Fold each of these.
Amino acid sequence: MRRGRTRSECGRVPARYARAVTWLPETGPGRDEFERVFALRPNLFDAWREFASIFWEKRLVDPVILELCRLRIAQLHAARHPLSTRMREAREAGLDEAKIAALAEWWRHPGFSDLERACLRFAEQFVMDAKAMSDDEARPVVEGLGDAGTVAFVEALALFDGFGRFGRMLDVAPVEGET
Amino acid sequence: MSAPRVKPPQRGGSDPISASVLGHQPEALLAFMKLYGTLWSHGILDQSTKEMARIRNARTLDCGI
């Protein structure tokens, strides 16, 4: 059963992200390179998919906030694969490509809500230096998402960060073409 | 030391993990434990290498857990 990630609907992958495939000498079966790399450890991949899909399927956090933070973290890692995918749940909740295009300089654009800004600031600090996270940065996130939502949000950030690094370190290629 | 930013759930319990803030999201916790258990108990990488990386990562982040 297919769970978790959904493929990009944004058209062809930008040239800056589309180049060689992973340097791993072998891969397993899969529809894209992330799946083919992770298929080398199928039991781990199954458990990962089950965990990763919960945040979207159960709506533990607003999918637009999750998707903005997922993509922003991928930008920070220059991780080609997550940058080339889009989550259906976020699109259905109203996130469009124009807003995603503004994400690299979200602080300059008025189209982001106060809570989205707080979450993006928190996500960036999480990736760059979690030890330096201040109460002032955390407070608006906890107030906006609540205790349970904050726990889910931080868990999701850990996934996005960890698997952004995973894709970057293994040089996982983006999803290509119309999907 | 500053106060915790999120308090553990009221229901508590004897298990220290589910009684922690992670208990706010029981389904996510269950799925995470399955993933983590697979990583530690059904992997092909030797345990000492994984433990060394885990401890090194915790030290880098100054994570007392």
Amino acid sequence: MIQILFMFFAAVALGAAINVLAQKHVLYSSLSLIVLLTSISALFVLLQAEFLAVINVIVYAGAIMVLFVFVIMLLNLPADEERVDRLRWLKLIGIPMGLFLLFMVGRTVWNVEGSATTPELPGTAQAIGASLFTDYILPFELTSLLILIALMGAVVFAKKDL
Amino acid sequence: MIPLNWYLILAAALFLLGMLGFFLKRNIISLLLSVEIMLNAVNLTFVAFSSRNGQISGQIFVFFVLVVAAAEAAVGLALVIAMFRNRETLNVDRSNLLKW
Amino acid sequence: MIEYFSSRDFLILAAKMIAIFGGVMTALAYTTLVERRLMAFVQMRPGPNRVGPFGLLQPLADGLKFLLKEQTVPGNANVFLYYLAPIVSMIPALLSFSVIPFGPDLKIADTNVSLLFIFAITSLGVYGIVLGGWSSNSKYPLMGAMRASAQMLSYELSLTLSVVGVLMIANTLSLNSIVLSQQGTWFGFIPRWNIFIQPVGFLVYILSGIAETNRLPFDLAESEQELVAGWHTEYSGMKFAMFFLAEYANMVTVSALATIMFLGGWNGPMFGPWWLQMGLPTVWFVLKISGFLFVYMLIRATIPRIRYDQLMRFGWKILLPIALANIVITSFLVAIS
């Protein structure tokens, strides 16, 4: 049963990722990315990390992608204007090279043993919170500083008179 | 049970798709989306290993990756708005004033 | 796998799903009727009372009308997104009911992150509005959609932060455990509800919930006096019915969460024989939700709309600091006790 779920969500994830690259209009790419994010959240649930799955949906699919969709709609972007022909040989060589790289990585990774889930990992909010606020408190505070810097940067860059 | 290498192969495939998109696309927003695909693939690898080893630090790191992705998306989109206001196009090949 | 689908557990689960889904859909249909009658009584007119006795068959007539209307698509509209938007609006609205406990046994799923699951699902509901407004290719829906998405995104923050106080007291994210932690009484007669311990959190949650579901006084996105009908101007027939039902389902979800977290969920005085006691928790739950819906509709009928800049200022500069202060004070009190 779990295999069927994994196959389904993996197929949806790969299909959505290919769709992100294949669409001409960037709004459809963003919508495919939202599908990708929800299927990755489903894979997180299969890996017993349900808190992270829900956080993924709230933060990524519910906030960051809304920002993307907002910008695309407000800028009223057209579809990609020209099909530049000098990209064609780049794609003709690039995609087989990418597949070759995937084959090499896959051959190395294939020897990793063991099942993906161990039963003693909680993955709940208590476990993550306990570790986040004791062992990793310094990176946590630094990320809040990072968000503040990003906030200031975004406000400055989007002003009319730079 | 699902063996771990299935998750790693899936994450590698997603990462490579994001990388291909980053190299082959010309629209700035498509580049940002490809970066997001790569970050998600990395998240999947972290969570898979965290679930395999029974340690929570993999999931903690995913938190930080999520925060960095949010910050980068915000600043990147602000740059997109600034660039679109100046040039009326989102093709990165057109922003080549600093080239030799 | 086949033996799971024909086992007794799955059949009971399927029966619960059918019962909850059927009950929710019927309740949504009759909520529209109650709203119209209530607003009519506030405005000193009778409201729809022709179709059945007291207008009880009005939702049926409305449903038939929606089904039989002509399906139009505005010219130059993005057809794929135009058809996708009501679906994207409806699915999260109905999915939230899968984790809400209607009784001690009447729940479909009980994960240990149920509360965050509902917040995640409602934050996906923004896309229905944004896509619907943009794909209609007309200026009123676009303005309504932009306003609605900015408003929903801003008030999601204070919505999520206002329940952190309850989480710290109940020490769990699972909705069933939150309901169970409010059983019993203090001094024998005051029920152990969270509203007495977290009044500020309750107020912030209710205000953010009204803003989140785009209801008056926060419904600038679909204000009938300014933008013809906001983001669903160009929608008619069954697609409009899906938007409509999604809005009411969101209202019911917000009310259900408010009762679970602050008013004790399905807890209530138990009396009577065993067959009455099996259904009594659900009755208490439905009564409390109805109270909230009543307040929602009364607010809609009486209070004027606030302006967009006042709305954003209220969300960011007033509600968000109050929610944060609530978290700080509650954590302090929880730590010292």
